[in-house]
Amino acid sequence: MEPILEIRDLHAEVDGHPILRGIDLTIRPGEVHSIMGPNGSGKSTLAQVLAGRDTYTVTQGTVRYRGRDLLEMAPEERACEGLFLAFQYPVEIPGVNTSYFLKAALNAVRKHRGQPELDAVEFLELVRQKTRIVQLDERLLNRAVNEGFSGGEKKRNEVFQMAVLEPHLAILDETDSGLDIDALRVVADGVNRLRSPQRSFLVVTHYQRLLEYIVPDFVHVLVGGRIVRSGDRTLALELEQKGYGWLEAAPAAAAH
Amino acid sequence: MTTQLDSVAAHYAAELDARLARVRDPERIRLRRAAFERFEALGFPTTRAEDWRHTPLGPLPRTAYALTNASVLVQAGVAPPPLEGEVRLTLGGGYVTAPARVRGDLPTGVVLGSLAELSAAAPDWLSAHLARHADVRADAFAALNTAFLDDGAVVYVPRGGACAAPLHIVHVAPDGPTPAVSFPRTLIVVEAGATLDIVEQFVGGAGAEHCTNAVTELVAGPAARVRYARLVREAKTVHHIGALHVALGRDTQVSAHVVTLGGGLVRHNLTAVLAEPGADCALYGLHVSRGTQHVDHHLRVEHAAPHGTSRELIRGILDDRAHGVFTGRIIVRPGAQRTDAKQTHKSLLLSGTAQADSRPQLEIYADDVKCTHGATVGQVDEEGVFYLRSRGLPADAARSLLVYAFAEESVASLVPADLHDQVRAEVLARLPHGELLRDAP
Description:
By secondary structure, chain A is of the alpha/beta class.
């Protein structure tokens, strides 16, 4: 099967400081990959670079996404092509109504795909259906994007947007951080309901806890900007027991 | 220079003499003469005056403007679209030209009409309110406006009255090739327990560097509720110096929106006096400026009685070489305990050459009060832009949406709804790539 994402020797830096130092990763349709690693290892940088954040400079390597050069694409084009990033810190946008924002986003994506734009009634119907996936309070849709939302509401809103936009590849950047166990279950359940043979996930997390609910096919450990070890879900359990220390000392070659 | 200014003053003096020769009421003549003397004593302010430090008047003090009279033609093209259910009064160059200028049906007891006519019909009533609130003593522009108070608009809502129809006063500035000055004047009196929604718009003024020197006095009695909106949509060459003075009684609620979408040099002198306990005043300002526009909001909110609440929220969006100035003075008089006053000024700069100055000034003489102020100057939030783009919105649309949202927050409570819609559309039209957001809420 054609990979959905193929990262080769990816290097990236911010303000001249190298953060990613040669990432290799291949994700095929339907697979769930998890990236784990200590703070500062480059997990969020990888997520942001894939979504097109321009504060990071890619200095080396290639990323192919569904057969195209991802790094050539503007962030909005990546979104329209079905790449979705659930933010670690969803941005508050005062004055922009959530429902309007989502409709504009959905119609931009649909237009790009050659689908007709949804009218107000169709949109409302779709939204109703999708809010149930993450048990999002519909009233939040009439408020400004993420403004005054609790931590849990913000994360649910991310997964809700993902459900509406129906991406091919969803990147979840520490979606579990700041969630209590009940909210975590709801969010994870929402993600699981979106799993399909075509849709792939890259789940970035610091803790093994999330992976009890979103069971990954592959686990990769990122240390110092490199993947130092890859395995199946048992690797996550091993990390839970041993911490990251034993890998920080390990040579990068162990990744392959 | 001095001779030039003297000749300008002589020009105004001669014009005043000619006008006062036609006025019969000695009281009115006394008022206008006294105001002119104040103007002569004060002279036009310069940037050496603290209150005008950031707002140079350019050629205004040196220009012997032609004075408008009742013959100013109101061009059909400049009239703003009607608001649902409105009653409209149109003035050209500050004059109501009877009889056809009031359109719509007024509720019983409510007055909307010409100051000159009312001056003849009820001189004592008028004297009790007119020029009692504008600062004729210290403000040269208010003094000059008062000296040339031939006509204007007057609004009256009697005790307990509810004016369901929005009142809409349209001031049309003169156009044509000769620089002209007009002195629009408005008096709004809302008695105890009455309610009113009122809109005042300033339009026209194409063709030359005209000057509008406008004064509005809004007097709201105990427990009255007034929602006022003031829109400056004049041509970009107009020098607009406008004053709004709000006097609030016990438990009175007044909100005022001041929206600036036109004019070249615009100065708003906004004053609110909370003279009795429990008054609640909210002042909102929004300007969307570009080119070399200069927009100055000069606010003075005076808490003279306990338990008063005031909110000031002024926002500016500045592109090109536009300049925004804000001075916000909150004065809490001795004994005005439990005052709750809050002031915010935010500027969004869309270009590297736009400029914003912000000067909050608190004078507090009571000890049990809550007074806060905050000012920010910044650019479009790039985190926000990326977030929107990561959901599929094109970069230009994302940026415009954030700018629009910034504006929208300061007009969220603007009424009537159809005026709000018009302002939205006009804000969008003035933003780069605003057309991408045509269906924005």
